[in-house]
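Title: Prediction job returns without error message
Component: structure pipeline
Severity: low
Priority: P3
Assignee: unassigned

Description:
Job completed but the reporter wants confirmation the result is attached to the right record. Sequence as submitted:
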Amino acid sequence: MLLLGLPLVLTMVVPDWMYSQTDFIDSWVYYGFFRHLEAYSVSMFPQTYYGTRLGWIVPGYLAYRFFTPFEATLILHLVFYCLAVGSLFVIVRRVSGSSSGLFAALAFGLYLPTVRALGSDYVDGAVIAYALLTVAFGLRGVEESKRVWTLASGIAAGLMLNSNIGAVLLFPSLVVWFVPRQLAGWRSLSLWVHAVLWAVGIALATAVLVAISVGTGGDWDFFLNSLRWMRGQQGTNPWDVTG
């Protein structure tokens, strides 16, 4: 109940946290994709990496298609905020207990950079939510040997990659959570089955987004533009860039 009430407390303190900053153009480009996906994909931003970030664009597009702009903004940002905070709570509770999970989730949910990211229409909030969801599902899948959760973890990872291909840099810090606690675990057939299922989940998420891209006038290989953008970043250490 405390975690469910957290967005309400946050809104009382910072009433406009679910709205993008007016002086940052990128978040408004994605807002445009939410409102006019077909036009933006075909005529306004064709062949750009903006339009490849369907893991974030599609949920936004659906929100604005079925709800009023006010409702869509509320629903979209609350869902991703709750996914992120709830996933972190589940992860920390699993490894350190409920008290630690609650403390971590509350601290994270009130942390200004978290609030800024999850309240904006930029892709950062989606990457954060999908990354935490990936670990939460993956831990349950591996530790409880429930393959459906591993598949779900892979789908979340696929949505994360298709929100910003640069999130591939997070993979080491995500996958390490699934490493067996005993070295002998590496020889387990079950572990490799989970690894394959995780990869299938990524492919499945991408395949669904391919179908949506084609259906809205985009290209089936929409993700190639992100890969080209990623290749253009070679020579830059992403952990050593000011800001």
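Comment from assignee: result matches the submitted record. The longest helix spans residues 69-96.
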